């Protein structure tokens, strides 16, 4: 009879462990920020495309995982395997850049292809919003199962490029090299994209199309070119996120591995204010932190998603536009 | 576009600067368990090189004189694709080998073998199970491999009166449903769970942290393991299938000062967990059950897998040379994996029944019910609930990137 109860533990199903949260506050923050950086990079792709087309590109999670696969194949080709490497600084940076390039370019190409195959023909025929939503979901599954048919059901063997090395510590909490690289690089890339959209001519084009595509066209902006560019930028960052994800989870390249992370990143975009690049950054970090704090407070990792999405709901109840609210169109240089 | 290039440069410089720090720093405490030596007072268990097979083990070939209807079919219902497909593949290759040996030796009785894919997913398993039961030529089934899908489909087999031997589903509650068609060809988690404690003792581990996933299998196993550990339990955490970020779990393990972690779940999550434990500075042993014991675990955990041990109510097929060689003939050269021998044994029992003329579902079921003979892995004699009495649990470890047996750790 004991096993009849196997699914329902006899203890209270919910309890709050504040001690655990306080004593683990630093590690929780460290890990939350690391994953938050990855969420933020993926969230930009959702946000940019939404800002320009009012379309939720559900296939973006597969754009991300394609980048992760490209990173794994590139690093495997460069001779990395599941063992922690012992590389000098210069070769390490070189290999990181090669992997970054491979991941970013692959994701960008996949993103542009998705736009070309799944969205542009519909746009040309003036299809209703719902049709885009369905093709988006369809493309997402189609890519997942293409990868499945090609690579099988198991994850790619793990590859590690960054040696596991603590760089400094705050209190008892070690800060590892890969975490620093991820957070610094993710921040730098987010700032770069934000500035690009705010300050450059092309960025102004993106904002113009987001605000009013017809008027933008009249003003001489090539709407189609801007749309392709938007998908490409989202793809580049998703590919970079693919590299950072593999640095954190070396066996993370699996056919359905983008799905959960994609949903999280989409939630991050909505939390920060969809259509808003700074919102994506803020939403990404917040979601990473909230999930982590939540699972210490509530005792186990199964609470992570519950906490994330309850907070998302609460925020949207108070601020339906998301925390930073304003859309891409309203950004002023 | 010029502006993009300008802005990309700071990003690259930032990465370089950070990587630069790396080289000059002393490295801190987060080693990746390099060298494979275990921390503290933990002991290494030696690898086993051979095992003894019962001399009276029944073989599929029989006496070679069997006669049967050429439509006689045995089905396999279980994972062929999906996240944990490898376990299913190990099983049906073992089954295929038994069928081949039987049909080669018995020209008068060519038994057919049909496979139905469940992806190991309880929500998808009812379809293939129904398909198998509605094929009138199928008189016995090997499967289902996983506990969740077995739970979801047991009733379908019961209603169809179709006997099925699961070579690997270990949730104890499966035998409590009153299904007369359910036969379990191995020890359940009531045997495997307590074996975790025995393995920990042998390794000299004093505090064991238990992490469970959200599957029927993981929950059941964590329950029995936790009870078996008693005072040795250092703490527990619960994770989800498909989870890849275990940073909080790692921190809790480190806080608990445990010298062993038992993960009740499958390798898809077990591998990244072990890797992240090692990365985080955990120096103890990682113990996984049969669902983690898989070559894929080693591939996905990389060098972190050096600290890994496993419990499994399964016999090391690669230490039975004759079986291992024959198996490679049906598996494209792959060595026997977890539950290959158990799949082979289960099929041998079905074939023995067919050879004795039990070619209806009812007769084959009764034959299995009263079966009492040795297989390669153990003695097969079921009680009224479909459980065996002889239930050895083996210990395994990762040795040079390969999973090897360290011998029987509990007789059950």
Chain pair forming the biggest interface? A-B, 76 and 72 residues
Structural class of chain A: mainly alpha
Q: Structural class, from helix and strand content of chain B?
A: alpha/beta
- The oligomeric state is heterodimer
- Overall shape of chain B: it is globular
Number of helices of chain B: 12
**Percentage beta strand of chain B:** 15-25%
Report strand % of chain A.
under 5%
CATH superfamily grouping of the largest domain in chain B: Response regulator
Major sheet size, sense and barrel closure of chain A: 2 strands, antiparallel
Q: H/E series of chain B, N to C?
A: HEHEHEHEEHEHEHEHEHEHHHEEEE
Strand count, sense and barrel status of the largest sheet of chain B are: 7 strands, mixed
Helix content of chain B: 25-40%
Strand order of the largest sheet of chain A: 1-2
Radius of gyration of chain A: 21 Å
What gyration radius of chain B follows from the Cα positions, in whole Å?
23 Å
Give a verbal description of the structure.
Chain A has 333 residues and is an all-alpha fold. Helices cover 69% and strands 3% of the residues of chain A. Chain A has one domain. In chain A, a hairpin with a 2-residue loop joins β1 and β2. In chain A, α3 packs across α9, α4 packs across α9 and α10 crosses α11. Chain A is globular. With 412 residues, chain B is α/β, with parallel strands linked by helices. Chain B contains 12 helices and 14 strands. A 7-stranded mixed beta sheet of chain B has the order 7-6-8-9-10-13-14. In chain B, strands 2-1-3-4-5 form a 5-stranded parallel beta sheet, sandwiched between helices. In chain B, strands 11-12 form a two-stranded antiparallel ribbon. At the A-B interface, α2, α4, β1, α6 and α7 of A face α1, α6, β7, α7 and α8 of B.
Which structural traits does this protein have?
heterodimer, A: 333 residues, mainly alpha, two-stranded antiparallel ribbon, 12 helices, globular, disordered N terminus, B: 412 residues, alpha/beta, Rossmann fold, 2 domains, five-stranded parallel β-sheet, 14 strands, 17% strand
């Amino acid at each position: 009879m004991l096993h009849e109860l196997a699914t329902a533990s006899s203890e209270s199903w919910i309890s709050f462990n504040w001690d655990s949260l306080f004593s683990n506050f630093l590690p929780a923050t460290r890990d939350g920020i690391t994953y938050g950086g990855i969420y933020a990079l993926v969230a930009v792709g959702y946000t940019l495309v939404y800002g320009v087309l009012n379309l939720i590109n559900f296939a973006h999670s597969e754009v991300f995982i394609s980048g992760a696969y490209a990173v794994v194949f590139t690093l495997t080709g460069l001779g990395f395997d599941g063992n922690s490497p012992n590389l000098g600084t210069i070769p390490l940076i070189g290999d990181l850049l090669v992997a970054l390039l491979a991941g970013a370019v692959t994701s960008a190409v996949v993103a542009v292809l998705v736009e070309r195959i799944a969205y542009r023909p519909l746009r040309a025929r003036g299809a209703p919003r719902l049709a885009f939503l369905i093709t988006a979901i369809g493309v997402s599954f189609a890519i997942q199962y293409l990868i499945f048919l090609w690579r099988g059901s198991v994850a790619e063997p793990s590859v590690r490029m960054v040696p596991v090395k603590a760089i400094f510590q705050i209190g008892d909490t070690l800060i590892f090299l890969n975490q620093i690289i991820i957070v610094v690089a993710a921040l730098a890339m987010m700032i770069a994209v934000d500035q690009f959209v705010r300050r450059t001519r092309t960025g102004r084009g993106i904002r113009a199309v987001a605000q009013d595509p017809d008027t933008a066209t009249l003003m001489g902006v090539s709407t189609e070119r801007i749309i392709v560019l938007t998908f490409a930028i989202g793809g580049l960052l998703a590919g970079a996120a693919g590299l950072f994800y593999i640095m954190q989870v070396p066996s993370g390249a699996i056919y359905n591995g983008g799905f959960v992370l994609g949903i999280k990143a989409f939630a991050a975009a909505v939390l920060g204010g969809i259509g808003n690049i700074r919102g994506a950054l803020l939403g990404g970090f917040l979601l990473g932190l909230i999930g982590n704090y939540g699972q210490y407070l509530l005792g186990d990792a199964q609470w992570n998603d519950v906490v994330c999405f309850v907070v998302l709901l609460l925020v949207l109840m108070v601020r339906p536009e998301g925390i930073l609210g304003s859309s891409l169109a309203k950004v002023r240089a | 576009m010029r502006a993009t290039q300008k802005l990309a440069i700071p990003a690259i410089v930032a990465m370089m600067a950070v990587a630069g720090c790396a080289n000059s720093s002393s490295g801190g405490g987060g080693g990746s368990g390099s060298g494979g030596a275990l921390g503290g007072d933990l002991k290494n268990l030696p690898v086993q090189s051979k095992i003894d097979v019962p001399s009276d083990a029944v073989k599929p070939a029989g006496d070679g004189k069997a006669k049967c209807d050429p439509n006689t079919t045995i089905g396999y219902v279980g994972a062929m694709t999906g996240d944990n497909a490898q376990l299913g593949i190990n099983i049906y290759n073992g089954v295929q080998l038994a069928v081949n040996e039987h049909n080669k030796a018995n020209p008068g009785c060519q038994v057919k073998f049909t496979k139905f894919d469940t992806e190991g997913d309880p929500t998808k398993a009812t379809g293939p199970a129904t398909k198998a039961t509605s094929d009138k030529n199928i008189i016995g089934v090997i499967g289902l491999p996983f506990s969740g899908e077995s739970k979801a489909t047991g009733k379908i087999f019961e209603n169809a009166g179709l006997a099925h031997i699961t070579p690997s589903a270990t949730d104890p509650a499966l035998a409590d449903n009153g299904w007369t068609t359910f036969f379990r060809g191995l020890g359940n988690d009531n045997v495997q769970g307590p074996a975790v404690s025995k393995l920990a003792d042998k390794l000299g581990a004093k505090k064991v942290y238990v992490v469970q996933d959200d599957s029927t299998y993981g929950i059941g196993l964590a329950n029995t393991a936790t009870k078996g550990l008693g005072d040795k339990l250092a703490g527990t955490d619960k994770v989800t299938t498909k989870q890849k970020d275990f940073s909080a779990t790692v921190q809790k393990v480190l806080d608990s000062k445990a010298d062993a972690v038992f993960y009740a779940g499958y390798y898809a999550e077990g591998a990244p967990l072990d890797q992240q434990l090692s990365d985080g500075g955990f120096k103890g042993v990682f113990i996984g059950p049969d669902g983690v014991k898989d070559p894929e675990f080693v591939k996905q955990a990389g060098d972190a897998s050096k600290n890994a041990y496993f419990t499994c109510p399964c016999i090391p097929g690669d230490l039975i040379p004759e079986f291992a060689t024959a198996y490679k003939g049906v598996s494209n050269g792959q060595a026997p994996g977890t539950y290959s021998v158990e799949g082979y044994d289960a099929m041998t029992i079905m074939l023995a029944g067919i050879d004795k003329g039990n070619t209806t579902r009812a007769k084959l079921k009764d034959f299995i019910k009263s079966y009492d003979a040795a297989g390669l892995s153990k003695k097969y004699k079921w009680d009224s609930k479909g459980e065996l009495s002889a239930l050895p649990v083996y210990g395994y470890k990762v040795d040079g990137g390969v999973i090897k047996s360290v011998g029987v750790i509990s007789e059950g």
